[in-house]
Amino acid sequence: MEKLMITGGRPLRGTVQISGAKNSAVALIPAAILAETPVTLDNLPKLSDVGILTEILGELETSVNWFGDKMVIDPTKAKSKPLPNGNVKKLRASYYLMGAMLGRFGEAVIGLPGGCNFEPRPIDQHIKGFEALGAEVTNDHGCIHIRAKELQGAKIYLDVVSVGATINIMLAASRAKGFTTIENAAKEPEIIDVATLLNSMGAKIKGAGTETIRIEGVSEMHGCRHSIIPDRIQAGTYMVMAAATRGDVIVDNVIPKHMEAITAKLEEMGVGIVEMDEAIRVIGRPEYTAIDVKALVYPGFATDLQSPMTSLLTQAKGTSILTDYVYNNRFKHVPELVRMGAKIKVEGRSAVIEGSPLYGAKVKASDLRAGAALVIGGLTAVSGVTEITGVEYIDRGYDYLVDNLRNLGAEVWREDS
Ligand SMILES: CC(=O)N[C@H]1[C@@H](OP(=O)(O)OP(=O)(O)OC[C@H]2O[C@@H](n3ccc(=O)[nH]c3=O)[C@H](O)[C@@H]2O)O[C@H](CO)[C@@H](O)[C@@H]1O
Ligand SMILES: C=C(OP(=O)(O)O)C(=O)O
């Protein structure tokens, strides 16, 4: 079992380069099978989810070749195959194969997704969308069968604002007959990124990034070249790390506009922020003010930065309240931070955080961002070594983590027990 080891108390200093966005990459790779000729993706992150998706594409007779951070996907000979188990269970975003396979082959037989299950994560809105497009959907003991003789455009109102359902419907509707409208669509930058790729492949999508997306189906899609947007969650995590360690870090290769919610909250606490064209400098201060944070859908504060922010708020003077309006119960990092000396109580969908020092301890990451929160805890600890297990979750979202942190002056290493 691999462990991440951290001796805390060192301010991070220097520059960190942010990778391409995981939550774009995991949708863009399945999207490529909608094309009849090769798709090239640039700025891909080297993450476990990306590796698993490429293996799944291999199962669908789609070749994938890496050249540095560039990937060439050749779906020319792609074939529909049932994917009931195995790799699809290893990540959440395997659900994008539903929309992509439905669009390309008119069918998908696929196991329910896995990944970070910090609480039940239903896909009823995805299914509702496929059904509205004319597909028949059945659930055979956790294996979803989706079939359509012909996909027909439809008006779809999402009951909840869902990133996954919005993208999945865009994927399938790109190849439906006629017009599809998604109302109450999610507005995350990753949705615009996927729509940009699909449009470069020949789709006709308008309104991505707003709550109404209109898609005119096309009968054929082709290859193209696309560069993935920077990972705003990875960037936000490094911003929080810089602040928590009272460091001074340039977080490079970001789109500052995507970082507005976290930037505003860090400034409110008293963190120094300097915005540049494609970078943000984060300057730590000796003291921070307690604040309240509400995690919401974009452009609100990202739920994926809620756990990292919890760790930072242990460093603020007074009581902070962090409420997650996207997930009811995404607080698996809290008991682990408490082991490190944090004073946090979970009340309903809020964490109430009293400022207090953290100390090194043996802790366990039970999901990706809980893991990030523990890394921040470890970097901030005033004494002792922090030993984090569950490293495979952290590897889902942070490529080159140890190298990046060491370059910034942290004492961090991996160990096999
Ligand atoms: C691969 C990917 O991009 N993952 C992100 C995506 O996950 P994901 O796309 O799974 O998250 P959603 O946006 O769909 O979920 C938002 C909320 O809607 C609920 N819901 C969702 C779908 C559905 O059919 N029914 C339903 O009730 C969920 O339980 C949740 O409470 O957006 C989340 C919210 O920003 C992020 O935390 C994840 O990092
Ligand atoms: C929850 C996350 O990812 P996924 O939806 O892929 O599990 C995340 O990135 O924090």
TrEMBL record:
Entry binding sites for phosphoenolpyruvate: K22, N23
What does the entry give for GO biological process?
cell division; cell wall organization; peptidoglycan biosynthetic process; regulation of cell shape; UDP-N-acetylgalactosamine biosynthetic process
| Ranges for domain Enolpyruvate transferase | 7-405
Reactions catalysed according to its record: phosphoenolpyruvate + UDP-N-acetyl-alpha-D-glucosamine = UDP-N-acetyl-3-O-(1-carboxyvinyl)-alpha-D-glucosamine + phosphate
Annotated residues that bind UDP-N-acetyl-alpha-D-glucosamine are located at: R92, R121, P122, I123, D124, Q125, D304, V326
- Keyword Ribosomal protein annotated: no
Positions of post-translational 2-(S-cysteinyl)pyruvic acid O-phosphothioketal modification: C116
Q: Which residues form the signal peptide?
A: none
List the InterPro entries hit by this protein, alphabetically.
Enolpyruvate_Tfrase_dom, Enolpyruvate_Tfrase_sf, MurA_subfamily, RNA3'P_cycl/enolpyr_Trfase_a/b, UDP_GlcNAc_COvinyl_MurA
Its UniProt pathway annotation is: Cell wall biogenesis; peptidoglycan biosynthesis
Localization of this protein = Cytoplasm
Q: So what does this one do?
A: Cell wall formation. Adds enolpyruvyl to UDP-N-acetylglucosamine.
- Please state which protein family the record places this protein in: Belongs to the EPSP synthase family. MurA subfamily.
Q: What is this protein called?
A: UDP-N-acetylglucosamine 1-carboxyvinyltransferase
Species in which this protein is naturally found: Paenibacillus swuensis
